[in-house]
Amino acid sequence: MTSPTSEGTGGFAALAQGDRVAAQLYTDPEIFDWEMERIFYSTWVWVAHESEIPEAGSFKMSHIGLQPVIVNRDRKGNFNVLLNRCRHRGASVCEVPKGKANGFTCPYHSWSYSLEGNLRGIPYPDGYEGVTEKRDLPLQRLRVESYNGLIFASFKPDIEPLEEFLGDAKIWIDRFMKQGAGFPVKVQGEHKFRFEGNWKIQLENTTDGYHFPIVHRSWMASVDAETADMLSFMTDEKAVTHALGNGHSVAIMVPEHVDLEEDDGMEELQERFRHIIDELSEIMPQQQVRRIVRSMHGAGYNLNLFPNLSLSMSFFRVLRPISVNETEIQHMALGLEGGPESVNRERLRIHEHFQGPFGFGTSDDSEAWDRVQRGAVANPDMPILVNRGLGREVTVDEGWKTSHVTDETGMRESYAMWKRMMSDEN
Amino acid sequence: MKTDTAEEVVAIDNRPAPQRYEVGLGQLADPLVGRAIELIWREAQLLDDKDYEFWQTLYTEDAKYVIPVDPDTEDFESSLNMVYDDARMRHMRVTRLVQGYSMSAVAAARTSRTISRFTVEEITADTVTLRSAQVLVGFKRDKFQMLGADLTHRIRFNGDDARIELKLIRLVNSDSAVNASGFLL
Known about the structure:
The structure holds two protein chains of two kinds.
Chain A: E1 20-21, H1 24-27, H2 29-40, E2 45-49, E3 58-64, E4 67-73, E5 79-83, E6 98-100, E7 103-105, E8 112-114, E9 119-121, E10 143-147, E11 150-154, H3 162-166, H4 169-176, E12 185-195, H5 199-205, H6 212-215, H7 217-222, H8 225-230, E13 240-245, E14 248-252, H9 274-283, H10 286-294, E15 301-305, E16 309-312, E17 315-323, E18 326-336, H11 341-354, H12 362-376, E19 384-385, E20 394-395, E21 401-404, H13 409-422
Antiparallel strand pairs in A: 1-19, 2-11, 3-4, 3-6, 4-5, 7-8, 8-9, 10-11, 12-18, 13-14, 13-21, 14-15, 15-16, 16-17, 17-18, 20-21
Chain B: H1 6-10, H2 31-48, H3 52-55, E1 59-68, E2 81-85, H4 87-99, H5 103-106, E3 110-123, E4 127-140, E5 143-158, E6 161-171
Parallel strand pairs in B: 1-6
Antiparallel strand pairs in B: 1-2, 3-4, 4-5, 5-6
């Protein structure tokens, strides 16, 4: 067995080779430690959606890699991402997952910080006279930028602008948000679960159209024929995956729902939404009813943003590495801010049907990923294959490598980025 | 029902004898309560045995089976839940669990659950509402899993017949990570 850092191999980079990756990528704790440094602490990582922190003082706890952060909105309307660690003796200053606050006070010795992270108060300050200045000890602030409601942070102060990092993925973020059908998109609730496997197994999965009819056969069998038909993309030539650069990719499963603003009026609205169609038809024009109901299942694709977010049809999938063989997943259900209550409820029911620890889809995904981790320890010299569709991959006018949605173009894009970031040259 | 209102906490040092709950009234000896507990324990056994087809017959047609995410909400309709099943969803869930297409159901943990700490929330002429605590131990691939929950069952009686009209399962970790499982609570 070769060590991942063995000399003359280009370090970790040699472990990802275009059409295959070494199984140690799932199992080697040393690689995991380096991934935290070279990927999670070196790039833009998604931390929140702006609807989760709607007002001045709103905050939520989040993570970047293994490190706990607080994301908040201050009185000027700016987003702050602060390390959740007191500058005195290291205690976390916040253990409330979400809420509203004027600032954060460490429970240990009551050092208190503003929403911007400035150290405002130290009890019994005489002991610090001539020793330390409050202005020198703010909570550590990270770089923060947002795009179309998505808030990202980075440990790297001199990182490229977020919009450059997102690149062509921005087009797909903009299209994704159209499922608000004229209303802002909001997070309505979230499911959270962990599986016993490496984070990249989940990263791959949101661009894996190949597994869908197999792993999710029981879900397909339970939904109405129209919904099942909508997701029958296995032999649909228009269902493709585009590699978008910087590790990002988009897997299109419902080509007719790529741009929800485009409606030629030919598509029949699903009968399962009859009660909503009837209700909305009373209060708004047909065109708007169609817009809302056609958006009920979300956008027709999964947009994978390297390394930790997927905009997945009608929800956000967020991954958080816990250790080399444990990963936490959040599935955030999306709704329409200020939109019809019946629509938001229906969207919650659709989410519950597939997602979450008791969902008809998630539990089977989770089982499959556990199995990958269990199997991958057998002969680590045997590679993991990501070569499906290499023979039919083309480059389209936009410059995106493209193949069928059941192919592994999106995974190859992720691993190309992984390779770039894990190279010793970086 | 909560007891930790500010007034009560302030009064903690000179509290008179408990009045909020009517304790020691012998409600557990009520025949309807006895029948309700019997049904709840039978349900637990059917779930441990994974006899889901029999299990769903214990529910009334309009029954709800709920595993909420939000520990405080009573408005399940407007909230995201882990499970919010009416008869239609319950039936589909059972089909899925038994038909053999779901790999997580096929590989589900063996479970053994204990339900105790019964308290009577309400007794009417034809319903009994009980709260209880459930500790579930699961075992799969060399690992134990433990899930704790506060349960509320509302049982409806119709002559000799007793069925579950509501089952509310508040997992102690409901708003944190709950791992996917191929079994039912």
